């Protein structure tokens, strides 16, 4: 595979390294490899590096490195870049209680897909999801790709309050809300895994390149793990 990478100026000291034009799971070995190689190439001249679905946003110390020097370092990395091997990141098993009381869009997704609620749960738990990027809230990982059969548009009117631990899908993405926040994703269930606490300690549980497999559990097991079973009303 030959990369058709572009380097775009985003700010005086920020460059966007665009490796791909479309979201694809096959991008991740290249994104992970570029992340590692760029960190090594810039060392302490790097202020921040944010990998995403198709790009890496690189913020460097412009007082110690000129624009041309930064470009040269990136171009040297891209010239010799090879995809990371198959052992990308870590694999996480996330226990989820799937139930209409805490996953009020289970029925909506099932009707949209022409499946039963049980089939939706089986399908959502039936594969590993790649963590493409972090954002929106501390510990929030954008994951994919959801099976096409389950792909359901976002809610027309986002909720003002989505409980921490809510697991949802939007089109072909899936995610876990790490803390109480607004949101317009279709909520299928809830987990007791404390994503926000990991992020607050500076050690996010999910990182780009990781993989996630959701595991269905009962209400009693969810509550035993410390989960909050307070119902969530269905979206209008």
TrEMBL record:
SUPFAM superfamilies: Cyclophilin-like, PH0987 N-terminal domain-like. InterPro entries: CT_C_D, Cyclophilin-like_dom_sf, PxpB. Keywords: ATP-binding, Hydrolase, Nucleotide-binding. The keyword Hydrolase applies. It is an enzyme of class 3 (hydrolase). It comes from the Bacteria. GO terms for molecular function: 5-oxoprolinase (ATP-hydrolyzing) activity. Residues 5-207 form the Carboxyltransferase domain. Its EC number is 3.5.2.9. Transmembrane segments: none annotated. Coiled coil: none annotated. PANTHER family: 5-OXOPROLINASE SUBUNIT B. This is 5-oxoprolinase subunit PxpB. It comes from Billgrantia antri.
